[in-house]
Amino acid sequence: MIRLAIQKKGRLNTDSLELLAEAGIRVSDGSRQLLTASDDFPIEVLYLRDDDIPHVVAMGVADIGIVGQNEVSEKRQAVDEVYKLGFGKCRISLAVPKSENYASLEYFNGKRVATSYPNILRSFFDEKGIRAEVHDIAGSVEIAPSVGLADAIFDIVSSGATLVTNGLKEVEKVFFSEAVVIANPGLSCEKRELLQQLLFRFDSVKRSKGMKYMLLNLPNEKVDEVVAMLPGMKSPTVLPLAQPGWSSIHVVVNERELWGKIEALKKIGAEDILVLSLEKMIP
Ligand code: PRT
Ligand code: ZN
């Protein structure tokens, strides 16, 4: 049995539960029980505030966790970051009132900066030789300048809309974050084995995101030209059709490239193009 800590409520909760479900692991959503086991895999899920996850994993109360790199870096706990999940992407940035003339980092010398990430910010300022006052505040960081609590802020930015609403502008992007799997460094062999199985499933889910399965028919003499322009897990699959002189090609393509590929394929002479959603890609 392996114990996984995930966020109880908030931005990472839904994506974490969706990832588990796509990896074939169903668990109840944590609204009634803080610790719940799955019938599909030897795993228990522990629901916590994201701030507590690094500590709980470092202590071994949970074996592994899903949490933002921002929390891992801020909390400075002894955990291993073992897998990047690709969701919960954001950055932590310095922002100042939009009326300020900002030229360089020197601006922050002697300024008061409010943040919930004092460790990350202090390290950054130390590294750059900036002497600023770092004020650690738990929430509503973005209103600190307008109420006179600080001259600037260091906070999470995603679209930037919150900064604009609060009359601020982003001037330095300091730390880039996404959700990761963290692990206790002293896991037993049995738990390491379960972690590897879990990461294998997560990886298959992640690889198939945004990928489509495409089938098309083509005169045989065009096959080489089409194979050269299409990717594939190894290379595209080419199968003969019952109709002489024709082949069927099967290939996995990225959704972003889909329409460009379809237009090029039609020019070459492809017909009967089918695009299907792809559920799992197992290497
Ligand atoms: O209750 P708990 O402590 O568990 O949750 P929380 O309130 O501390 O965290 P939560 O749920 O807001 O975020 C969890 C994690 O999601 C963070 O630690 C980040 O790793 C990640 N993440 C991704 C974000 C954002 N995007 C994000 N946009 N976390 C917070 N925000 C907030 C930000 O603080 C600011 O208020 O969204 C606002 C900015 O968004 P934009 O789009 O207006 O720029
Ligand atoms: Zn939190």
Question: Please, could you describe this protein's structure?
Answer:
The protein has 283 residues and is an alpha/beta fold. Helix content is 28%, strand content 32%. It has eight helices and 15 strands. It has helices spanning 11-22, 53-59, 69-75, 118-128, 161-165, 189-208, 223-229, 258-268, and strands spanning 2-7, 35-37, 43-48, 64-68, 80-84, 90-97, 112-115, 133-136, 152-157, 168-177, 179-183, 211-219, 237-240, 246-254, 271-277. The protein has a six-stranded mixed β-sheet with strand order 2-3-1-4-11-5, with helices on both faces. The protein has a five-stranded mixed β-sheet with strand order 8-7-9-6-10. A four-stranded antiparallel β-sheet has the order 13-14-12-15, covered by helices on one side. The longest helix is centred in the C-terminal third of the chain and has 20 residues, at 189-208. The radius of gyration is 25 Å and the shape is globular. Zinc ion binds at residues 49-51. Phosphoribosyl ATP binds next to helix 1, helix 3, strand 9 and helix 5.
What brief labels describe this structure?
283 residues, alpha/beta, 15 strands, binds phosphoribosyl ATP, binds zinc ion
